[in-house]
Design brief:
With about 240 residues, the protein is of the alpha/beta class. The protein has helices spanning about 45-55, 75-85, 100-110, 115-125, 140-155, 170-185, 200-205, 230-240; strands spanning about 5-10, 20-30, 35-40, 60-65, 70, 85-90, 160-165, 190-195, 210-215, 215-220. The protein has a single domain, classed as Rossmann fold, CATH 3.40.50.300. Helix content is about 35%, strand content about 25%.
Length: about 240
């Protein structure tokens, strides 16, 4: 595998020193990896994801994705970078209520100026939501809405797929279905970086768990088997944090 993402001595300090800052983080993600970032609220995990996505800028250090130093891009350049290279799924679905499922999925492609209806319908079929193409979000279950959000994130064939607590607004069954979907995308070659607080989901589906505490990486475990017990990851994280 080749390197896709690199953070080098990255720090992020919000005005007033609010929780969520990063403190000298250096880490790489290889192309084709499925990495989960774990940590308590305010630990900096979502901040890290936002920096990789180009949604935020570091106070110091460099963030490089696919060989591009994001710090060298202006706002228009970052917008184009996100549009062309990054798919992002959030905890909440952010679907436009006045558009159908299909129309929501097509938004990024339309911004890019491409006709992607065929790809959109193919993605919907693959994700098991082909039958809801003409339905509005209010008529969809939470799991269906999240799958629409996943399809929207994939419509431009992104180099990097980022997910911030994608199961947080779902019940257990729907959350597991979304994680199974991400696992299938990874097996198909998609690079995925996931933020989650759920150790069981992370260790069951991801091949690597990066633990963050107080803005620093305290453990980085590449799992030989995704069957590693969640309690083992929690124990290791606690031991590292106490040092």
């Amino acid at each position: 595998m080749s390197e896709l993402v690199r953070l080098t001595d990255v720090s992020k300090v919000y005005q007033g020193g609010l929780a969520g800052a990063l403190d000298g983080v250096s880490v790489t993600v290889e192309k084709g990896e499925f990495a989960a970032i774990m940590g308590p609220s305010g630990s900096g995990k979502s901040t890290m994801l936002n920096l990789v996505a180009g949604l935020d800028r570091p106070t110091s250090g460099t963030v490089t994705v696919g060989g591009t130093d994001l710090g060298s891009l202006g706002e228009a350049g970052l917008a184009k970078f996100r549009r062309d290279h990054v798919g992002f799924v959030f905890q909440f679905f952010y679907l436009l209520p006045n558009l159908t499922a299909l129309e929501n999925i097509l938004i990024p492609a339309q911004l890019r100026g491409t006709d992607a209806k065929g790809r959109a319908r193919e993605l919907m079929h693959r994700l098991g939501i082909g039958e809801v193409a003409e339905k509005y979000p209010a008529r969809l279950s939470g799991g269906q809405q999240q799958r629409v959000a996943v399809a929207r994130a994939l419509i431009n064939a992104p180099t990097l797929f980022l997910a911030d607590e994608p199961t947080g607004a779902l019940d257990t069954r729907a959350g597991e279905q979304v994680m199974e979907l991400l696992g299938q995308l990874h097996r198909d070659g998609q690079t995925i970086v996931l933020v989650t607080h759920d150790a069981k989901l992370a260790t069951r589906h991801a091949a690597r768990v990066i633990s963050v505490l107080d803005g620093r990486i305290v453990d980085d475990a590449r799992l030989e088997s995704t069957d590693l017990a969640a309690s083992d990851v929690i124990r290791v994280r606690g031991e590292e944090a106490s040092r």
